[in-house]
Specification:
Helix content: 40-55%
Strand order of the largest sheet: 3-2-1-4-5-10-11
CATH topology of the largest domain: Rossmann fold
Distance between the termini: 62 Å
Oligomer: single chain
CATH architecture of the largest domain: 3-Layer(aba) Sandwich
Number of helices: 12
Strand content: 15-25%
Shape: elongated
Order of helices and strands: HEHEHEHEHEHEHEHEHEHEEHH
Number of domains: 2
Radius of gyration: 23 Å
Largest sheet: 7 strands, mixed
CATH class of the largest domain: Alpha Beta
Length: 336
Amino acid sequence: MTFREDWLVQWERLIMTKKAIAVLTSGGDSPGMNAAARAVVRTAIFEGVRVFGIYNGYKGMLKDDIVELTTRSVSDIIQRGGTFLGTARSAEFETPEGRQKAYANLQKHGIEGLVIIGGDGSLRGGAKLSKETGISIVGLPGTIDNDVWGTDYTIGCDTAANTIVDSINKLRDTASAHRRIMVVEVMGHKSGWLAMMAGIAGGAEYVLVPEVKFNLNRLCEEIEEDYSHGKRYSLIVVAEGAGSALEIGKYIEEKTGIDTRVSVLGHVQRGGSPTVEDRMKASLLGEKAALAIISGESNVVFGYNQGRPVSINLFDAVDNTKTLNPELVRLARVLA
């Protein structure tokens, strides 16, 4: 490379480099969001770029709840669940007028790029903002449901799955002691990934998910047959999108005559200190997001494919629906 070519490369890099970026977390919280935000902040500062935190998601962007961060701002958070930036939903941001107002607040601080950590709804909001204003957007998939298209992994899904398995292990003890059927409801309105992974890892006999049709009458017949041969208990994991665990449990007890209990895990699945996997993967994705947006990249989401970090087109990520791996569905049936 000649001196002139080298000078041109450096000049182009200087032109493309952002002087100030921002990071926000949006939608449902998930363990590992703090690790991702921390990586974004510290990477930007390491590269000599100012970085702002937007508190309470898009709602905070509209209220100009935007503060410049330092490395100390993100100390002592990698091990914490939730998100130190906070998160909130905003109906106003759903309107073009709201997004223009939010963009004006970003301009006020000189913010040229935005890292969004959240699920498909949050990323969809970022895609709209990018289309309408031209601001650089880089997304990180942060949701326990693991339902973002184009990535095998989303920040927080591993911790949530482990939380559910821990609960299943405890519920098995009491189910076995009383020869009960235990129905466990977990999160997942449209995606059964959490239920399927936790159900298989927790040794559940049945996993009911919104993506797969099931026959409750046949399920009851199989349970009665198993109990007639001495089975002591049954564990059934239900994704909330597949139906109400309370109604399913009531139906099973009436149909089989076997004592049935229901446990709805609720928001306990969102909390807790993130696992090593969530801390490491979120940190790596956070660094990649910061470097990408600083260098002028836009409209991408960073995720994982077969264990390796990948970039996904933002608009593809929000316009497509992730499907449940059929191999998991088959495995759950084989191991039941």
